[in-house]
Write a structure and sequence with these properties.
By secondary structure, the protein is α+β, with helices and mostly antiparallel strands. It has three domains: 109 residues, Acyl-CoA dehydrogenase/oxidase, N-terminal domain (Butyryl-Coa Dehydrogenase, subunit A, domain 1, Orthogonal Bundle); 115 residues, Butyryl-CoA Dehydrogenase, subunit A, domain 2, CATH 2.40.110.10; 139 residues, Butyryl-CoA Dehydrogenase, subunit A, domain 3 (Up-down Bundle). Helix content is 52%, strand content 16%. The protein is built from twelve helices and ten strands. The chain has a four-stranded mixed sheet. A four-stranded antiparallel sheet has the order 2-3-7-6, with helices on one face. A hairpin with a 2-residue loop joins strand 9 and strand 10. Helix 5 runs parallel beside helix 6 and helix 10 packs antiparallel against helix 12. The protein is elongated and about 80 Å long. It starts with a helix and ends with a helix. The protein binds acetoacetyl-coenzyme A. The site of acetoacetyl-coenzyme A has 22 residues, from strand 3, helix 8 and helix 12.
Length: 378
């Protein structure tokens, strides 16, 4: 790590230890997102980590960003996913495809944490097949009128601005993945409504909602780039996002390992701490090895991104490997705790539940394998 990366890691670790970890159990139990924590992340600059200084960002590279995200996830995965979505998707999409005026208008308040961002691609009937979406945008004088229902939107209720994808092609001339636009949608726009808040297995504090657009007018200056390229912009965004989710998965796994190490040192059976048993040592060694391997792969992907190299395959590999490692490590952590791992009194039960969705959101493990295989043949 560079000196700068170490400083960022220490800052993130201190914040996570003081502001997140002590409350994670309660937020999970109550499915409550601590909105006030967003202000704290904003003050640290953690909501504009990848944005240039001219937009009030920290102008950090991806390598430093994923280090910070891992630490935040080690404290609380629900807060980390809100931070990951905001930093990786809407802000990066506006930075990459917005006009100067759009960047000036939206990025500084987002970087300062005054506006929390969300990303809306999925629909109830369009998950892995995201280009199969039905929500549509009809051109009208001075803008677009959006209609349709979107699903699984992190930060979609209490967030302030969503980058949302909708069809811009017409029913008589469908253009598939090349007939979708990306729109900057403030959540207080007339016609924007928030539906069901999902009652989830894990990452329960993070807000995941359905949203709907009903005759929602979006002015031309809130369309991002080319109205036919929104799906491509979204997939480019997900190249960043998937590295964020990999970091998040590693943070969850690291936390589970630390709890397992502590418990195996304290718990005595057959007259000795269970860490003295080779069976337990093998478990802990396997857990630590998978975490290090996941971290190394993620840092390889981040370095490629920072060097301007193609990153789709590496970010999918990093997400795939890290999320499966998180599932493995948290499952083993529950096993190390035995019966105590199965009850809510100990944190590994929550970490096990928190890990699962990293294999699902921002593209399932099956979709990551599809992306990797396609790239191998490219
Ligand atoms: N960057 C740029 N362009 C890309 C790209 C990328 N990473 N990936 C594909 N493209 C281009 C393709 O080259 C293609 O263009 P050409 O025809 O000119 O070559 C175009 O995009 C369409 O690509 P595909 O033909 O591959 O499209 P597809 O319909 O077969 O879908 C997919 C590909 C990989 C399956 C994609 O749909 C996908 O990733 N699905 C998963 C969706 C997903 O991750 N959803 C998560 C939503 S966010 C979330 O989870 C909630 C949250 O808030 C955390």
């Amino acid at each position: 790590m560079t000196e700068e990366q170490q400083q960022i890691r220490d800052l993130a670790r201190e914040f996570a230890e003081n502001e997140l970890r002590p409350h994670a159990e309660e937020w999970d139990r109550d499915a409550h997102f601590p909105r006030e924590v967003i202000a704290g992340l904003g003050e640290l600059g953690f909501l504009g980590m990848l944005l240039p200084e001219q937009y009030d960002g920290l102008a950090l590279d991806t390598a430093a960003y994923v280090v910070a995200l891992e630490e935040i996830a080690r404290g609380d995965a629900s807060v980390a996913v809100a931070m990951s979505v905001h930093n990786s998707l809407p802000t990066q999409m506006i930075l990459a495809h917005g006009t100067d005026a759009q960047k000036e208008r939206w990025l500084p308040p987002m970087a300062r944490g005054e506006m929390l961002g969300a990303f809306s691609l999925s629909e109830p009937d369009a998950g892995s097949d995201a280009a199969g979406m039905a929500a549509n945008a009809r051109k009208t004088d001075g803008g677009w009128v959006l209609n349709g229902a979107k699903a699984w939107v992190t930060n979609g209720g209490f967030g302030d601005v969503v980058v949302a994808m909708a069809r811009t092609d017409t029913p008589d001339a469908r253009r598939g993945a090349k007939g979708i636009g990306a729109f900057i949608v403030p959540t207080n726009t007339e016609g924007y409504s928030v539906g069901k808040k999902e009652d989830k297995m894990g990452q329960r504090a993070s807000e995941t909602v359905g949203i709907a657009f009903h005759e929602m007018f979006i002015p031309d200056d809130q369309l991002l780039g080319d109205p036919s390229q929104g799906f491509i912009y979204a997939l480019q965004g997900l190249d960043n996002g998937r590295m964020g989710i990999a970091a998040l998965a590693i943070g969850i796994a690291q936390s589970a390992l630390e709890h397992a190490l502590g418990y195996a040192g304290e718990r005595r059976q057959f007259g000795q701490p269970i860490r003295a048993f080779q069976g337990m040592q093998f478990k802990l060694a396997n857990m630590a090895t998978r975490i290090e391997a996941a971290r190394a792969l993620l840092h390889r992907a981040a370095a490629a991104k920072d060097a301007g190299e193609p990153v789709s395959m590496l970010s999918s590999m990093a997400k795939l490997f890290a999320s499966e490692a998180a599932m493995y490590v948290t499952t083993e952590a529950v096993q190390v705790f035995g019966g105590y791992g199965y009850v809510k009194e100990y944190p590994v039960e929550r970490l096990f539940r928190d890990a699962k969705v990293t294999e699902i959101y921002e593209g399932t493990s099956e979709i990551q394998r599809t992306v990797i295989a396609r790239e191998l043949y490219r």
